[in-house]
Amino acid sequence: MQVLENLLHTKNYVYYTRENSEKNVVEEIFFCHKKSYTGWRVFPHVLMIDATYKTNMYKLPFVQIVGVTSTHHMFCIAHGFVSKEKEENYHWVLERVKEMLDKCMEPRVIITDRDLALMNGCRKVFLYASRYLCRWHINENIAKHCKASFSDDDWKKFKGRWGNLCDSSSPEIYDYNYSRLYEQLVADNRQNTIIPLSNIDIFWTKLDTRYPTLLEDEEIDVEGQMGLVTQEINSKPALNNNGRMNLDTAQLSTHKRVVSHP
C-alpha cells in the first residue's frame, strides 16, 4: 500500500487512504486520475461498480468504478483497494466517490452485481439514485441455474428470446416478447417451470425504483427545463454538499491527500 501511495503521489493522482492506527499501516486506498476526476464531475449521471475478489498479488478486493458519457462511452472514474468485502468498507469508498461531486449533481442510476454489502452501501450513500442489477451478472446467474435443463438447440432459442425480452423498449413490446418466450416454454413442455424475475435473482424485487430516470425515447421540454434551472440558480445562492460521512471509529482514521486538482 505504501508503495502504491508513493506512486500516486508522484503521478499527481487524487487519492485517499485509511489507516489502522494501532498497526500504523494503510489498510485501504482510493485513487482517481485527474482526468477521471474531471470526467466524473461532467458525467455523474450513471455509476457502475464492480469488485474483483483477491485476484491481485496482495489478495485484496479491488473495486472498479465506471461512468458513462452522453455518447454512451464508458470511462474509469476511480479504483480502490479495501481490506474486507464488508458494507462499512464499501461505504468508505462510496463516500469518497460522493465527495468528489462537491456542488455537482449525484448519480441518477447505479448498477452493481448482487453483492448485498455493496448494494446496501449504495442505498445509504446515494439516497435518490435508482439501483439496478448488472444484466451480465443476471445472464450468468440464469445460465448457471437453468442451462443444464435445456438441450443445446432449446438453449439457443431461449437465449435469443430472453435477449429480446431484456431489450424491450416499451411495456407493449415487453408483453409481446414475454408471450413469445412463454410460448416457447409451453412448446418445450416447460410451462410448469417458468422462471419469474423474482426467482432469477431474489434481489430483483428489492430494488428501489421510486425515483425513475428519463428514458431516451421520452419527450423532454429542454427549453422549459433550462428555464427552471436558470430560475433556480438566480433565486438561490450556491449550496455546499453537506452529505459527507464523518468517520468516527476507535481504530481507523482517514487521510485525504489531494495532490492537485484538475
TrEMBL record:
InterPro entries: MULE_transposase_dom, Zinc_finger_SWIM
Domain MULE transposase: residue ranges: 46-141
Domain of life the protein comes from: Eukaryota
Stored PANTHER family: SWIM-TYPE DOMAIN-CONTAINING PROTEIN
Protein name: MULE transposase domain-containing protein
The organism's taxonomic lineage, starting at the top: Eukaryota, Viridiplantae, Streptophyta, Embryophyta, Tracheophyta
